[in-house]
Amino acid sequence: MWSWLSCFFIGHEYTVHCEHGEVYLRCLSCGRRSHGWSLEHASHHRG
Ligand SMILES: [Zn+2]
Q1: Distance 12 CA to ligand 1 centre (A)
Q2: Domains of the chain, residue spans
Q3: How many Å lie between the centroid of ligand 1 and the Cα of residue 45?
Q4: Concatenated DSSP letters for 1-47?
């Protein structure tokens, strides 16, 4: 309920999520989502 307060004072508590070949950050407290990065791009460097 007051989770936005911790986001406001402490900052967002981002955790890494992977979905549909994309990785993005999501806040545990308020659910705010960053824009995603495509994993295909990173895997290109392998090999
Ligand atoms: Zn937050």
Answers
A1: 4
A2: 3-43
A3: 33
A4: --HHHHHHHT---EEEEEETTEEEEEETTT--BPPPEEHHHHHTT--
